[in-house]
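Moderator note: this is an archived Q&A kept for reference. The question asked for a predicted structure of one protein chain; the sequence and the answer are reproduced below.
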Amino acid sequence: MRKDVRILLVGEPKVGKTSLIMSLVSEEFPDEVPLRAEEITIPADVTPERVPTHIVDYSEAEQSDEQLYQEISKANVICIVYSVNNKKSIEKVTSHWIPLINDRTDKDSRVPLILVGNKSDLVEHSSMETILPIMNQYQDIETCVECSAKNLKNISELFYYAQKAVLHPTGPLYCPEEKELKPSCIKALTRIFKVSDLDNDGVLNDTELNFFQKTCFNTPLAPQALEDVKNVVRRNMTDGVKDNGLTLKGFLFLHTLFIQRGRHETTWTVLRRFGYDDDLELTQEYLFPLLKVPGDCTTELNHNAYLFLQSVFDKHDKDRDCALSPDEVKDLFKVFPYMPWGPDVNNTVCTNDQGWITYQGYLSQWTLTTYLDVQRSLEYLGYLGYSIIYEQESQAAAITVTRNKRIDLQKKQTQRSVFRCNVLGARGSGKSGFLQAFLGRNLQRQRRIREDHKSLYAISTTYVYGQEKYLLLHEVMPDFDFLSEADLACDVVCLVYDINSPRSFEYCAKVYKQYFIDSKTPCVVIAAKSDLHEVRQHYSLSPHEFCRKHKLHPPQPFTCNMTETPNKDIYTRLTTMAMYPSSQPTRSLYSVTQRSMTMLCQLTHRLLARCCSYTCFWLPLFLFLLHVLTLC
């Protein structure tokens, strides 16, 4: 809704423009009328619509044509004043004023016009017979008001209608010639109907109608009022009410009726409550509410958001198979202006045997969007009506901004639920297979994926100590010369090499030494395609020697070339390492302990061999030290 309204009064000299303004302000007819009234501003708290209103007078005697043109360009609504007892001033409405205004305004954003018949106190008859043909001829004319500045008749109504023409314009909603709603209005009201249809059965039952009424007008309808509304629809259309609920056709009919009866502010109240602007587009403030995300923090959906998304899934999963078929997905996104998910989504999250997105996959995709692009997630939640259904100020209430990762490391604990693992490796090393295996797909199923539908992301849930967490795998394209901050920013790193390709490990080694050797990010080396014959890597150190030297866990064998579903243990381990990076063994601890035990055993053996007489003294001591190191 506009923050203020600017009303311009034009017309022939002596028709009473200035008198109308002064009568409104002083609530009495002025004894002396100046040639032109100064611009006045009516504060918001004394206007019916609670919007500041500026009223501008035009005087041909005091202003030039150029000044008139400037005022026309700034006006939100123009009142063309004529005198009901002056035929010439009525003729000038069509011969001069309307053409002049149309020439000075953009055709795509015409200013609403109000015809004002002043001096009604001087005649006994109405001028409406003459004015009605003019109103039918020009679509920009909102209404006509007959008034009298002298006896204050319809003065406040005049300016109320002028405000209303700006704040609740008929033009975007209704086509008078066709006597029906415009397509853009039908589209907006259809989305509102679908959002309000909480069980997605195609009708608004009494509970849904009451929720809708309370949402838009802050008060429920009495049971008899609900029946009266449905009876009005029943009398006018056969398919407007079904199963004692209001259908989409009945919903649209009611709004058509409101507009035809001059109550288009009712429809505008509904549209604006659901986020629409004067052009029937969802506002930027509605779709993208302010949300501050400090550096090194991530974004996640909170509990209420998941409950809302679960309800959206349930109402569109018509066959109750815990998966969304392509038709069900299409139905879910009918409230969107475009299809937000492409075919790659099916290779990003879990699907059933038919390739349909499962309930877990559905929530995973929302989690992924929120983590990678929280603004897009806010937009999507806006289309679904989250803030309206959950009665929140905005969709931002659905988002949790996690604390800085450095604080998690200092406190050695985290409250986050989503962890990112960047997967790096040379081309053909098996990264894509590693991602798809996380979604439960063996090599045979992976071969069915079309090249143009592949995804660089895979996300699903894992369980760490009984807690459900999301692990997000991101395949980083192999470009060793340059890795961006996004390629490096993660909670755990997977370095994948192909055991059957002799030059595959070299890439992993170089990436680790250049980017991660001094990093606090946990790193895991994955020996992919472990079902194949292992060849010697063309690198100065073998993968095992490299991991031992740099105090990493030994390479983890992995394959997805199996008949059954790939094992998820490695992904649980990655999530655990991401959750507790500071509790991972110091990279040297394991190897140092092993070497110490070996050296101690060797020393004990030599001492015992050289001097058996010292056995009674040294043996208990060495056994005690050996026990301590074993505990370590």
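Archived answer notes: DSSP finds 25 helices and 21 strands in the chain.
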